[in-house]
Amino acid sequence: MENVIDILKKPELKNPVAVVGSQGLRSIGLIAVDHMIMEWKLEQFATLHSPHFPIVYHGLPYEGTQGVAGSAVRDGVVNIPKIEFYEKSNIIITRGYHADHEGQYKVAVKVVDFFKELGVRRIISLGGFVHDKFSLDEERRISVCGTNEKIIEEVAGNGIGVDYTGPFLGFSALVLGVGMSRGIEGIAIFGQTVPDTENPLSPDPVAAKALLEKLSKILKIEIDTKGMEMYEEKILLQEQEDIQKPPQPKEENKRDYMGYV
């Protein structure tokens, strides 16, 4: 078996936009797409399965690390890792999954080829970033980068800056880059966060909420984020404690991470 896309029900689309999120820095992109899927009560129209999807990673999933194949059991139900595709109002919500080192580029190409078949005109990848001048007293910064200057100028402004320089790792980044090479323009939108050195994947719904509020304006569609507010106070208190902690010596990260299913 290689990378296989199973189409459950092909939606009627007209110049759709693909929104992509996956497990990454503080899981911001994943939280954002999961919230849209739950808020809009969407059903999958397609899935992608791959022999390159570990269930346990020997390192951070978005670093293209090796892992162990298997299934996940939740509430007695067995599931295997997959990429999930949903649709609403010509927006293709893509819930990504990180492939291992050998498969990450192949999976991204498969997804972008599928986008081309569906007529996708733009890719919007979601993620997180760390800014040196972070302050908990300010609103979360939102930063954008893009495949050309025109699209950056179109999106930047109204609280969206061009503040991040550095690597963008994993599935969402590769889909954006491969899309550019295949003629699909795109942007990445990053929500500002504080790194968690003990678990870089620990969720930051505060950043995800700020990200969704800007995405809502870009897509010109309502995304109700009220359901995310219950997490804010707890997360903000935790971040305040983290910032006040004395710096700890760096240790090599050798822990394993579960994939999400």
Description:
- This protein is α/β, with parallel strands linked by helices.
- It has one domain: Rossmann fold, CATH 3.40.50.
- Helices cover 28% and strands 23% of the residues.
- Strands 1-3-8-9-2-10-13-11-12 form a 9-stranded mixed beta sheet, with helices on both faces.
- β8 (83-88) and β9 (91-95) form a beta hairpin.
- α1 crosses α5 (205-219) and α2 (104-118) crosses α4 (171-181).
Considering the protein shown, what is the CATH homologous superfamily?
PAC-like subunit
From the alpha carbons, calculate the radius of gyration and give it in angstroms. 18 Å
> How would you state the average pLDDT, rounded?
89
The CATH architecture would be: 3-Layer(aba) Sandwich
Strand order of the largest sheet: 1-3-8-9-2-10-13-11-12
Largest sheet: 9 strands, mixed
How many DSSP-defined strands?
14
Shape: globular
CATH C-level: Alpha Beta
Number of helical segments? Answer: 6
How many angstroms separate the termini?
20 Å
Low-confidence stretches: 242-247
How would you classify the helix and strand content by structural class? alpha/beta
Q: Give the percentage of residues in beta strands.
A: 15-25%
- What level of helicity do the residues show? 25-40%
The arrangement of helices and strands along the chain is: EEHEEEEEEEHEEHEHEHHE
Q: Would you give the CATH topology?
A: Rossmann fold
The number of domains is: 1
Which descriptors would you attach to this protein?
261 residues; alpha/beta; Rossmann fold; 3-stranded antiparallel sheet
Please write out the topology.
Elements (H helix, E strand, L loop, with lengths): L3 E4 L9 E5 L6 H12 L6 E4 L6 E2 L9 E2 L3 E3 L2 E3 L3 E6 L2 E5 L8 H15 L3 E8 L12 E5 L2 H7 L4 E2 L9 H11 L3 E8 L12 H15 L12 H13 L12 E2 L3
Helix pairs in contact: 1-5, 2-4
